[in-house]
Amino acid sequence: MKIDILTLFPEMFSGVFGESILKKAQEKNAVTYNVVNFRNYSTNKHQNVDDYPYGGGAGMVLTPQPIFDAVADLTNQNEKKPRVILMCPQGERYNQKKAEELSKEDHLIFICGHYEGYDERIRQHVVTDEISIGDYVLTGGELASMVIVDSVVRLLPDVLGNEDSPIKDSHSSGLLEHPHYTRPANFRGLEVPEVLLNGNHKKIDEWRERESLRRTILRRPDLITNYELSERQKKWLKEIEKEVE
Ligand code: ADE
């Protein structure tokens, strides 16, 4: 996968892309990151990238020219059209399903604004997706784009070892993940549930599925609304609801 980031603050990315799994993914050639200052594309003699809004009002607006030209330059005519993703609080709310969808693409281009709004023609003629990472306002799209890159790159083939397989993650199954325990079995009198210690994998799997359901109903009941429960999960759900009454 090729990932281009258009930003006025390229230095913000070096730490995040240069550590841990995101760094290893690039070393394994699963992904290449290309962080570009779109000011370099400005044809204005002062290399300006924003201007006052038509009609007046506070704040500046990013002009179309540098972004149109940067996206055109980064798009290879022989490839499938890249996804061009505008980071903004008005976009569709990001979730694991969207991460999975984006992880199937070959080329993503992120556009990160900072402080300013975007000229509407950027949205209409360049962008394929507008994404918000949550209902709050950041100072710019940079952090939001890093969140998306992180969640997408970890899904690429061979990026995580089998051990850390993303299949069991919270949200990828539609439920939150079950609790985890490690040694010691008794830590200052705090015991690990007996069922995890006896090596009966059928029982362990059952316990995990039930606890995953419990955690979801207690913390995120909204997720259950869209989840198709199996017969035994329905039975467990009734029991859990009685237990917490
Ligand atoms: N830019 C500013 N706030 C944002 C948000 N919540 N998501 C994505 N981009 C943003």
Please describe what this structure looks like.
With 245 residues, the chain is of the alpha/beta class. It has helices spanning 14-17, 20-27, 64-74, 96-102, 120-125, 142-153, 201-219, 221-225, 231-243, and strands at residues 2-7, 32-37, 50-51, 61-62, 83-93, 107-112, 117-118, 129-132, 186-187, 190-191. The chain has 2 domains: 2-153, Alpha/beta knot; 186-243, Orthogonal Bundle (Trp Operon Repressor, Chain A). Helices cover 35% and strands 18% of the residues. The strands form 3 sheets. Strands 2-1-6-5-8 form a 5-stranded parallel sheet. It has a 3-stranded mixed sheet with strand order 3-4-7. A two-stranded antiparallel sheet has the order 9-10. It is elongated. The structure holds adenine. Adenine is lined by residues 87-89, 132-134, 136-138, 141, 144.
Labels describing this entry:
single chain; 245 residues; Alpha/beta knot; Trp Operon Repressor, Chain A; 2 domains; 5-stranded parallel β-sheet; 9 helices; binds adenine
Roughly what fraction of the amino acids lie in strands? Answer: 15-25%
Low-confidence stretches: none
Task: Output the CATH class name of the largest domain.
Answer: Alpha Beta
- SSE-based structural type: alpha/beta
Number of strands: 10
Cα end-to-end separation: 49 Å
CATH architecture of the largest domain: 3-Layer(aba) Sandwich
Give the strand line-up of the largest sheet.
2-1-6-5-8
Rounded mean pLDDT score:
95
Helix content: 25-40%
Task: Supply the number of structural domains.
Answer: 2
Output the CATH topology of the largest domain: Alpha/beta knot
Radius of gyration (Å): 23 Å
Q: What sequence of helices (H) and strands (E) makes up the elements?
A: EHHEEEHEHEEHEHEEHHH
Largest sheet: 5 strands, parallel
